[in-house]
Protein: Anti-sigma factor RsiW
Amino acid sequence: MADLSHPEDARLIALLDGTLADEERAALLARIDIDPALQARLDRIERGGRLIVPAFEALQAEAPRARLEDLLASAIVTDETRRVLERPQTRALRFPRWQPRLVAAALALFVLGGVLGASLNGWIGREGGGSEIRTTEGWRQAVAEYWSLTTPETLALAPTPERAAAELSAASAKLGVDLTGAPDAFPGLSFRGAQLFDFQGRPLVQIAYLDPQHGPIAYCVIARPDQADVAPTIEELDGFTIVHWASGGQGRLLIGRAPAERLQALAQKVTG
Structure:
């Protein structure tokens, strides 16, 4: 969900909508080129656009039409939001399959975070076939979004041995799995620390490394006691190569911009 306290959201949505004046569009694109955080913001809103059609259809199926329309109407809470929703649709969106009503629904869902968040998260988290987005895939998307902001400069400083030991001890205790050997797990990579996160109530540990040739690489472990074992699998996500697998009630992955063969070889160090 977009945080509407961010001052650039309305302009980023207008950029995707194709309604910015040429001069303003050029200036915004120039800023995006040099501002990774703003690029990530745009990518997040755009990615939300790609998901909004099936999400909106799922919400329609679960809520009476009149109630949903009331919720969407109540989302138009500021003059800026109203101007965006009521602006004539004179140019094609970057998502040509969208209809005007879904454009309004998309922005309203951003605004309605607290109101519809639980319903949308429930739809995303349900197991099943078809086009549903499973939680097992969602955690990899969350890692990719965060890792897209990481550069070699982010990992320029290695933690002290004392700090590294404390981070890995805390992560091991939270996950119930021994991660204290992480600094030496991958020959050729420089250990750069461990961070403990929470993903939908599950502990998620991200262990950072720096590859002298391929840049930042992360080894992530999430508690998944309900997941069956899965052999190492390769996928491409948001420009990253990911090797992911599951064993012993833990989901695991390696992510980076290194070739798949490189990440596969690294994965063998901790799956063998």
About this structure: The beta strands are 190-199, 202-211, 215-223, 230-237, 240-247, 250-256. Residues 87-103, 109-134 have pLDDT under 50 and may be disordered. The longest strand covers residues 190-199. Residues 9-125 form one domain.
